[in-house]
């Protein structure tokens, strides 16, 4: 049976900010991991991204993101659900809050021509703008 190294826990996010819901499993099981919100399959998008660890990154949170989240590992002949965790979306208070990295890129090796995902998710107010650099050269959007 699959085992969870970490599971989602109840959390809050301010409107327009970012949050990560944990769901870490063995790397060979990540391709068999998916997310549910309110016990319905969650459709991933540019705002809702499953990270290489299996965690769910929520960017630019809206009121529609509030709900009960859980991840599911479906392996040959067996499946296992994580604990459910409530995500609350709070109104923005306008008060400054310090920048905090929720997820940072980690070193990775890929074959030439292969795709790579380098996650970087930051929270704070005013909502931070993330820019990418290679060495000391800014990457264009």
Folded structure, characterized:
- The chain starts with 10 loop residues before the first strand and ends with a strand.
- The protein is built from no helices and 13 strands.
- The strands form four sheets. Strands 1, 3, 4, 7, 8 and 9 form a six-stranded mixed β-sheet that branches. A three-stranded antiparallel β-sheet has the order 2-6-5, with no helix packed on it. Strands 10-11 form a two-stranded antiparallel ribbon.
- The protein has a domain at 4-90: Immunoglobulin-like (Sandwich).
- The protein has 141 residues and is mainly β.
- The radius of gyration is 16 Å and the shape is flat.
- The relative contact order is 0.24.
Main attributes of the structure:
Ig-like_dom_sf; six-stranded mixed β-sheet; mainly beta; 141 residues; disulfide bond; repeat; immunoglobulin domain; Immunoglobulin-like
Judged by helices, strands and strand pairing, the structural class is mainly beta
**Biggest sheet statistics:** 6 strands, mixed
Helix content: under 10%
Assigned CATH architecture of the domain at 4-90: Sandwich
Give the ordered list of helices and strands.
Answer: EEEEEEEEEEEEE
Q: Radius of gyration in whole Å, from Cα?
A: 16 Å
CATH-defined topology of the domain at 4-90 = Immunoglobulin-like
Helix tally equals 0
Determine the N-to-C terminus distance. 42 Å
Mean pLDDT: 89
In total, the number of strands is 13
> Which range does the strand content fall in?
35-45%
Stretches where pLDDT falls below 50 for ≥5 residues? none
CATH superfamily of the domain at 4-90: Immunoglobulins
Shape: flat
Determine and state the CATH class of the domain at 4-90: Mainly Beta
